[in-house]
Amino acid sequence: MKMRIATMAFGLALLLSACAPAAPTEVVTLKIAVLPIIDTLPMYVAQQEGLFEKHGVNVEFVPVASAPERDQILAAGQADGTINETLAVMLFNKEGVQMQAVRYALRPTENNGHFFIIASGKSGITDVNGLKGVEIGVSQGTVIEYVTERILQAEGFSADEIQTIAVPRIPDRMALLGSGELQAGVLPDPLAALVVGQGGVIVADDSNYPEYGFSIISFRKAAIDENPDAVRAFLAAIEEATDLLNAGPAKYKNVLSEQNLVPPPLLETYRAPVFPAADIPTEAEWNDALNWLKEKGALTKDISYTDSVNGSLLP
User: Fold this and answer.
1) 56, 117, 229, 259: most buried, per Cβ within 10 A?
2) CA-derived radius of gyration, the chain
3) What are phi and psi of 133, to 5 degrees?
4) Where are the alpha helices (DSSP H) in the chain?
5) Of 190, 179, 200, nearest to 118 (Cα)?
């Protein structure tokens, strides 16, 4: 009898335990370093629509003014993720895997270029062939120089016909193009439109070469290892935001101005690009960028695609 009573008490205890409310799970906060670039638009749409909260993750944006500042914050562990390029991930990983690319952020599509080679309106250059032997203002060692060289190579330029000059700051590039002191330069969307409004001529862009001019979402490897479910939730929110944005970009014009993603003179006419669905850079894309960095002497060894690109967290 005593055994029967004990068995019943044990069963009751199990039942009560099963019915008790679960202890609240702490919601993880991910810090994302963000430049004021159009590539970040789906993140802000996710925030506006409450999608991070819906998927169970807090997101704190950490504004940065430049790529070097962004990289310093990431290296110091003061941000978990960001939007950058595969080149940046390779340089982070040259002494060991510190960053992983987890998704395309923005990728050129037909009629939606990401980077534009623009001739000054005072240069007399009207087509891409006019760029042979002309110094083109770029930020050297970055994705802008990489895209510039790859576009011109695809257009049939020989190595000695491609000339670049360092003009690291975009405002300087724009001013020099406007004054005619720089005959040609490379600018991202939407800033290219401002120079075109001042007489600049778009002579080439990466809309036919999406394998070069894309950006990525990447996270510190330590942040992924510590909170993989939070990164999954972040990417699920981005996926939902991307669908909403592509279906009705006009709804989010307020984000363009509130986050300074588009200059005021362009706000009324600007058309947001089509953002890519969940996917990761291919190994061929990775290897091409890697070979370019090695040709430039920025890297002396291979950086593993398998260790640096992680598609397992996509929804």
Assistant:
1) 117
2) 24
3) 80, 0
4) 2-19, 41-48, 51-54, 67-75, 86-92, 143-154, 170-179, 191-197, 221-226, 228-247, 253-258, 283-295, 305-308
5) 200
User: Which strands make up the sheet holding 29-34, listed edge to edge?
Assistant: 58-63, 29-34, 81-84, 215-220, 99-106
What lies within 8 Å, CB to CB, of 103 at 6+ separation is 216, 217, 235, 238, 278, 279, 280, 314
The per-residue b/e assignment along 150-181, b for 16 or more CB within 10 angstroms, e otherwise, is bbbeebebeeeebebeebbebeebbebbbeee
Q: Are strands 215-220 and 99-106 parallel, antiparallel or unpaired?
A: antiparallel
Helix (H, G, I), strand (E, B) or coil at 305: helix
Please tell me the total number of residues recorded for the chain in this structure: 315
**Token output for 121:** 């309106």
Please give the Cα distance from 311 to 217 (Å, whole number).
11
Kindly give the interhelix angle for 41-48 and 228-247, rounded to the nearest 10 degrees: 90
Are 203 and 128 a contacting pair, CB within 8 Å?
Answer: yes
For residues 171 and 211, give the distance between their C-alpha atoms in angstroms, rounded to a whole number. 27
Tokens of 180: 């005619």
Q: pLDDT tens track of the chain, all 315 residues?
A: 444 544 555 554 545 444 444 544 789 999 999 999 999 999 999 999 999 999 999 999 999 988 999 999 999 999 999 999 999 999 999 999 999 999 999 999 988 899 999 999 999 999 999 999 999 999 988 999 999 999 999 999 999 999 999 998 888 999 999 999 999 999 999 999 999 988 999 999 999 999 999 999 999 999 999 999 999 999 999 999 999 999 999 999 999 999 999 999 999 999 999 999 999 999 999 999 999 999 999 999 999 999 999 999 999
**80 near 58, Cβ under 8 Å?**
no
Residue with tokens 């202890």: 23
- ∠ CA 118-294-183, rounded to 5°: 15
